[in-house]
Design a protein that fits this description.
alpha/beta; 4-stranded parallel sheet; 36% helix; Arsenate reductase ArsC; Ptyr_pPase_sf; Ptyr_pPase; arsenical resistance
C-alpha cells in the first residue's frame, strides 16, 4: 500500500503547520508523507518554533523546511488544518480534520511548548488512525 500524503495547512505556514510537518517526519515517516503549506508565506519559519524544536527534539526545521504556498505541495490524501481563526485554506483531499490549535506566535516558551506537545500527541493519534485505516476507506 502506498503511503498517504498528509498536508498540514495554516494561513502563513510559519509556525504550527511547520512544527507538524517536522514532527510528522520525525515520528511517522514510516506511515505517511508529510507536507505543510499556506495561502501566504513568511520570509522564515517562526524562530521560537525553530529554537524550541531544536531544544526538545534536536530537529533543525530550517535545514529542510521553508514557508510554502498550497500550490507548491503535491496533491494530498489528508488535510489537517491547524485552527486558523479565519477561513482555513481549502484543498482537495479524501479526508479533512481541523485541530483547532491556538497560534503560539508572540507567546512565551511555556505556551509554545504546550502547542508543540499538543501537535506531538495529535500526530501520534493521526498515525494510529492511518495505521488502522480509519480515515481513508479506499486503499491508496
Amino acid at each position: 500500500m502506498k503511503k498517504p500524503k498528509v498536508a498540514f495547512i495554516c494561513v502563513h505556514n510559519s509556525c504550527r503547520s511547520q512544527i507538524a510537518e517536522a514532527l510528522s517526519k520525525h515520528l511517522s515517516s514510516n506511515v505517511f508523507e508529510s507536507y505543510s503549506a499556506g495561502t501566504e508565506t513568511k520570509p522564515q519559519i517562526n524562530q521560537d518554533a525553530v529554537r524550541l524544536m531544536k531544544d526538545m527534539y534536536q530537529i533543525d526545521m530550517e535545514k529542510t523546511q521553508y514557508s510554502k504556498l498550497l500550490s507548491e505541495i503535491p496533491q494530498v490524501d489528508i488535510v489537517i488544518t491547524m485552527g486558523c481563526n479565519v477561513n482555513c485554506p481549502a484543498i482537495p483531499c479524501k479526508y479533512r480534520e481541523d485541530w483547532g490549535l491556538s497560534d503560539p506566535t508572540g507567546k512565551n516558551d511555556v505556551e509554545f511548548s504546550k502547542a508543540i506537545h499538543s501537535i506531538h500527541t495529535k500526530i501520534l493519534e493521526l498515525t494510529e488512525k492511518i495505521i488502522k485505516d480509519e480515515l481513508i476507506s479506499k486503499k491508496i
